[in-house]
């Protein structure tokens, strides 16, 4: 057997095994110790390595690619994007420069144009293909920093932040941790922020925004990671001025824009200076893939570009000018493949189906006498099974049961089970099986 036959056999078996436990058993996790060997001196046949990986590794995976993984906010991989990623791995292209991979540069440019059109963004938007929303937030904040300080006569790219005019950063009380991480990386500091109080769904209370004075970044959120709630983007993006940059963390919420039924939730987002989102969540491309959008593309390029004598400076779109990295994976290719295969209707269908299934799930929980702690406006449902201890025990028992997997959270002082429906693979049957299992486990 050759290496690729082993791979194909393994891939088909893995992807078709829909009965497997969604979370590995304690025994399967313990069996991963088989990998704990000292590094040997001699080379080993790659066939043996791949056989070891696929036989001993598969049982230690979390089946997040299947339809009953409801943890965090996790997409699967639509088939075209999954195989496109395999092909680009075979090609092993360096997608930094057009001259290193004309196909990567072309497909990234095409995908960027399609995304701008699909999501209703400004024609001049700069699009960077990064690893995830954390890096998208970071890239946007660095663009904001560069642009705002330039307005005040300071070149942060050249001179750094020491001695620069201070920038006020405003976030909501329910800001995502990754945005705080990005603030830390970008030199703003996690704690050096003005936090605006939020309402019961986690939305910024815009009546309590501070007075804005001097260079300011306002960080809004589209899609709270617990409740799915959206900040009032019309009001918040309306704050943008020459010295106020409005950024939106829309890691999954941005995709509401593809549905006429849900688009009202993101109304106003097109006026944001920058938006961070993920492709590995609701667009259902494989990890890792995030997207940053900067409304004036030159502001993204100004912050990200680097010049060296050997780097080309022609008219073609050079992928590296839109992102922090130089050498990088051709992330535009799986994005292109997902968009090309799904089309507008296919993407809308996934988003709408996931939201309908979240409503179905939430309604079933209420009907069975459990507490749903949030307004189910999107794909997120928070469930309490009574006391905090009981909710935690049910989450643990559901993990052992293996039918589905859910994370836990604390929402405004109460422990909750978090249901996120974000996968193209999730069907009504999956949700009904998951509800059945909850019934079985929570009543036992
Ligand atoms: C998932 C998420 C992030 C972080 O995204 P990564 O892809 O994990 O880096 C940021 N913000 C929100 C609202 C998210 O849901």
Tell me what the structure shows:
The mean pLDDT is about 95. This protein has 13 helices and 11 strands. A 7-stranded mixed sheet has the order 1-7-6-5-4-2-3, with helices on both faces. Strands 8-9-11-10 form a 4-stranded antiparallel sheet. α5 (about 100-120) runs parallel beside α11 (about 330-365), α11 packs across α13 and α12 (about 390-400) crosses α13. It has helices at about 5-15, 25-30, 45-60, 80-90, 100-120, 135-150, 155-160, 175-185, 235, 295-305, 330-365, 390-400, 430-444; strands spanning about 125-130, 170, 195, 215-220, 245-250, 275-280, 290-295, 370, 380-385, 405-410, 415-420. A hairpin with a 2-residue loop joins β10 and β11. Helix content is about 40%, strand content about 10%. The longest helix has about 35 residues, at about 330-365. With about 450 residues, the protein is of the alpha/beta class.
Structural class assignment = alpha/beta
Count the DSSP helices: 13
Q: Name the ligand types.
A: pyridoxal-5'-phosphate
Estimate the strand proportion. Answer: 5-15%
- In one word, what is the shape? globular
Give the spatial strand order of the biggest sheet.
1-7-6-5-4-2-3
The largest β sheet comes out as: 7 strands, mixed
List unreliable stretches of 5+ residues. none
Number of strands: 11
* Helicity level: 25-40%
**Element-by-element helix/strand order:** HHHHHEHHEHEEHEEEHHEEHEEH
Distance between the termini: 48 Å
Radius of gyration: 23 Å
Task: Please tell me the overall pLDDT.
Answer: 96
